[in-house]
Each structure stands twice: as C-alpha cells, then as structure tokens.
Amino acid sequence: MTHTLALHSGWQFKARNPHTSLTDDFASSSDWAAASIPGTVHQDLLATGQILDPNFGLNEQGVQWVGETDWLYRLEFDAAKLENGQHADLCFDGLDTFAQVWLNGELILASENMFVPRRVSVAGKLREGKNGLHLLFASALRRGQEIEAELGKRHLWNGDSSRLYVRKAQYHYGWDWGPVLMTAGLWRGVRLEVYTARLDELACAVSLSDDLKRAEFPVSVNVVGQMSGNVRLELLGPDGVTVASEMLPAAGTIEHTFSVENPALWWSAGSGEQPLYTVRAALDGGGSSELRVGVRSIKLVQEPVAGEEGSSFFFEVNGTPIFCGGANWIPDDNFLPRITPQRYRTRLTQARDAHMVMIRVWGGGIYEDDAFYDACDELGLLVWQDFMFACGMYPAHAAFQASIREEAEVAVKRLRHHASLALWCGNNEDYQIAGSVGAYGPGSDESKFDALSTYEELLPEVCARLNPSTQYWPGSAYGGPDSTSQTVGDRHTWDVWHSAMAPYQDYPKYEGRFVSEFGMQSLPSLALLESATAPEERFPASRTLEHHNKAGDGPRRLNVYIGDTVRVPADLTGYVYASQLVQAEAMLSAYRGWRRRWGSAGKRAVSGALVWQLNDCWPVTSWAIIDSSGQAKPAYYAIKRALTPISVGLALTEGGAQVWAVNGTTESQTLTLELRALTLGGQELSAESHEVTLAANAVTELGTFGVRQDAASPLIAATLRRGETVVAQEIRWPEPFKYLTFPDPGLKVEVLSPTSLSVSVQRPAKGIWLESAQETIWDDNMLDLLPGESRVIAVQHLNPAKLTARWLGAGETVKVGGSAVVNQV
To answer: Per the residue annotation, which of 148, 368, 378, 429 is the catalytic one?
Structure first.
C-alpha cells in the first residue's frame, strides 16, 4: 500500500559561491563533497578535514565562518513510474533552518522553521528514472540579522539578539554553557513515500477512572488517499497479546474506543512499574502505524498550604502525590544527529538511577527525538516539556505567530500520547526578562510584552484543543505577577551563583513551591579536559579552560565559591576535585533542605527540585552533573543520596543539630536512628539510638541532637538502619572546610570481585573520590565515611590496576601502594 524510499545516501554539499548564479553553482562540478544525512554542515566539514574539531582548545573561534555561509546540497535518485491513483510525497523530517528545495529544477518548498517537518506532494513533478533534488540553506545568522534590521532589536539574555526572530534551536547561538555553532543541513531524515492510501495522525488519549479500575482507549486515525478496503484497529497489552480489535471501513477519520477493566497502571520511577499498551492501526494490503501508551492520571495540584501563604505546586500520579526530584535537560550535543537512541537511553538511565522522577526539556533546545520520550516512558521519568522559547522578548507579528502555531501543533500531536508527558510549559524565563525591562509585573507596561499573547492565548489554545488532559503552564519560572514568587508556581533559584552569590549553605532559604532551576558550576572530569586541551594549557585559569566556561564571569564566581569553601589548589587535578566537591556540597544542601519541606498532606510547601542541569553538549565547566563524555560528577552521587526513597537530614544548630527524615514510600517505616558526634580524629563525643516511625509519603521531624559544648569542631552523623542494613545516612562537618586540618583517615579499599569493592577508614574521611578508568561506572562515589563502617560499592568495568582515591585534605590523588591500602581479594 505504501512504498518508502529513504533518501539518506548519495548526497553532496558545498559552500554557496556568491559570485555565480544559483543554477550555475548547483551545476558546478567543483568543490562538492560527500554529505551525511541526517547530518549538519559542521559534521561533514569535520569528516572531510575542512575544519578542526570545535570541541578542542580554541577551535570554536576558527569555525564561525560556517554559520555565516550559505550551503548547497544536491542528490540524484531513481524513482519508478507512478501507477494510476498513486500519490508521491517528499518528506523532510528536519530542515535547519532557512531552506529552499527544488525538484527537477522546480521550487517545491520554502521552510523557515527548524522544528516543523515538511511533506510535499510531488506526484506531478516526479520523473520515471533519474530525479534531481537541490537544497539551499541560507545562513540563519545573516538571515535573522536582516529580519532584525527591519523589525528592530529586542531584549534577551544569551546569544545574538537576532535569534529571537528565528525558529531555530536557540542554544546554537551560544549560551552560558555552550559554544556558538550555527548549524545547517538536513538534521533529520528525508524520504519519498509512494502510496494509494496511507494512515496519518494516529491518536489515543487514554483516560482512567477515578477509582483506577477502568481505562478507555479512544483511538482515531486518518486515512489519506482512496481505497476500498478496511482498517484494523488493535489494542495490545503490555505482554504483547491482543486485548481487543476492530475492523472498520478505510475512509476519512476512523474512531473507536476500547475499554479495559483493571488495567495495568503506569507509574513514575520509584512508585511502581511502567507497563505500556500498544495501539495499532493497519490498512488492508499493507501500511500500519502504532503508538505505545500508558494508563495513568497525572494532575498538577495547586491548593492551600496549611499555615502558609500561597498555594502548592505538586504532581499526583494515579492520585499519589510525588516529590519531583530531577533535572533540566539540554540537547546532548551541538550536532544533533550525533545523539543516538542508545545515548539518550544511557543518559536518562543515569537520571533514573539517581532516583530522579522528572526531566524538564528546556526551551532553548529542541523538541527531542522520539527515542528520548520512548526512554522516559520506559524508565518512568515524568517530562516537563517547554515550548522552544528562552530568555528573550520574542516578537508576535502575524507571520511569526503563524509559524509558532504550526510548530506547536506538530509538537503536541507528536508527543501527546506519551505516558511520561506531565506538563506543557510556554517558555523559559521570558516572564523574568520582561519583568527586568518593565514589561511584566505590578506597575509595568505589558503592551511591551508582545509574546504574552503567545504564552497566554496561542499556546494554551493549541494544548487545550489537541491535548486537554495535560496541564499547560505559561512559563518557567512563573508565579503570576511575580515570576520569582516563593509561594506560588515554580521558581528559578539563582540567588546562589548568580544574583547576590549567596552561600550555597543558604539554599533552603531560597525555596519555591517547585524549584525548577538552580545550580552550581564545576569542572568536568580531568580525562575530558585532557581530551579537549593541549598539554601546555592544562592548568587552572588557562586561556583554553576559561574559553570552556561560557558563563561570562563564571571563572571568577567559581573561584569565589571554591575559595569560600576549601583551600584553593594550584594544580589542575586538585582544582577539578575542589570544584566538584563544592558542587556536590551545594546540591546536597539544596535537595536535602527543600525535600524537608515536602511536609505531608495539606502541607506540601516544596514539591520539586530540578537541578540545572543534567547534561552537557561539549567539554565545558558548567552546572551539569554529568559531563559531555558521560562521566557522572560527584554532585550526581550527592543528589542520588539525597533522593533515596528514605533519607535522613541534619541542620546544624548552636548546640547540635535538628534531625528529620523523609519517607517517600507509600507505607510507614519503623527504623533505628543512630546519632553520633565525633572529633575529626575520630574520638566519639556523644551517641544515642532510637526507634523511629516514619509516616508514609511524608517528612517526620525527629527532634534535636545535642553535643558537648566544650567539643572543638565536632562532626555530627545521623544513620537510619533496618537491622544491620544502613538505609540512609548524613554526616555534617564543621564549615568552612578550608579552616580544618584533616588527619590521614587510614583509607582501606578492598576489591571484592570484578563488580564490587569495599571502602573503610580508621578516622573520619570527607569526600573520598574513587577512579579507575574512564569507562568505570560506580553505584556510589564521593563518600563521607566514619570509623567502624565499611561501605560496599557496586561497580562496572573496574580496572584495579588503575584504582586511585582522593579525599579532602589528601593533597594529591593516591594510587595503589600509597597511603591507601588496596587489596584484591
């Protein structure tokens, strides 16, 4: 019924020669080189040796001409003669960005939106035998600047201001964590479809009864073209077995609802399983389409918070309130076609394994590949999906809004069926920048905020019409008139790092009902830095290292936080460790402090914390907790411990510490709480033990632990045990660490097997960082340990011969045979 020809091989590309006609330029036999499809100009220039790797050293500066150039692509392909009644469509899944397309010399398409796939009917234009495709990609930078010169410069943060007029991934213009790499090309696939009839827009908005006992699957699909046969609609269970099916005439829009009693429910990670049903439509004679859907309800709850101003902002999955610990997502590469489905799955699995529940797709990137959302469905990661607007005063003239409407409709139709989709959000920080220029908020002139109609009229209308079961939120951050409100909506907490550069220990003071951005910079792994720098540039504050920190005065701010916390190392290895330890401590302070405010039913004061950011797109000093090589930083493990289903927390007071615990499970837990105070040398000052009962899905305050007032610089530890098993632990050390002199901890590491090792100390140790090889994957790392304890760590791809350790106060990394004892059993 449908024959599809992938048009991914045989392409050529070249820079447009502005001194010759376009016809002659396409016909020229010189300067053409092989092009990869899907791909970008940069990738092909790299492959053909015409540019140096922009990820290395200062090479980014030398490739800016690529984004200022127009590019040509051409392909010759064979096509069979069409039979009577057959249709033929050329389908371009992604054109980046200002593209014109000619088929056999005839202009068939002009596109100006990177996010909108294009389908062009070519039945009357296709030739039997040889056909020629020609594409021109105009420089998005120059074209945007031409539009800006006509319509006016607008306020923004990050990148060239012309980006606000261009529907292209905004991070390509450079951000405070990313380079300026203005890509062009066919960034997603292209194909020729020949058919008599085909299926289009298969949809299924699953609904679940309030008692969770009955699910309805309302299936609809369009038949495009003419045929006299039938369409078979089928519902398959999570086990792949057919639950129900229906045969209907293949004409126009076909609709049928399947009902299932006692369905298998989809849950977010940590709360249950993620079973997925399959909805399939198939035409007689061939041609089919299918979706995987989950049975669940997701609700955003905004209700009064007992005893406080404002309202809550928490998500319920199947009626169960969920604390949404998680992270923000940026595109995982500057060259998008390099991101494979496996890479998506690996990165998102890292998030799930850190007990994360939600991923926010940030509005300066892209609507991600289907593989991203499929992985979130399977892993139980809720998706907060921004529309693609970030940090700017966007225009709203008629042509621009028409393009936005088309873009939004495409995105909503493609993503609405995903079980993981929890929220549509209008933009990233556009309300905040409007407020900063007097265009939003009390006393402002909102007539200057053109895009208000986009965020409060156009986008909510599209969502309500095409995906009414998913909540729409105007922006992030957004709290009504005050985009920085701590009592309404979501908040971006940049009081730490940006703004007044508050101490990271103060994170709990800067709470919001849902903190959707916050972060602390650190360097990436030493191995990644060495792969991106020349040997002579491998020192703190080198020109290359500062170039690979895009945050304006980022190096200065990072030095302030390091200098406030630890003694500043002069060597690069020590500097990497120091920056990463500070980031880990900051994240622990934020997640532990805000999760304490999860409270209980009717008192959900803080309901989410999404770190900026999960990942990186190149080797860079940034706020990411996983660097661009896939290496988890120490902050990753700190967050993982803070988000364990059951965790314990300490807040130091003048005479000791306040103690609390979070039970994120749906059942109460009875555990043993052990409290200890020790000197840095390991002398025990006081200790006590209690049986405690932790309420289900709630925070339980456990009182105050007192410490001898004559004790100098004590550290305090809280441990929750179930029998002999440690369920959760927190150790609070005297701060700042730079004033402390740490005794040698007497570290002992024993390799128990190829997949496990144990770590123990004779004296308290802070920040034990283990490394072996770049491919090693640790279940836990950046450890705080007390004497008398032994921590067993699961590990993959361990190389015992290269095993090293470093800890706060060590001064250097210790190899096997150093002051650490490493025994292979």
So the answer is: 429
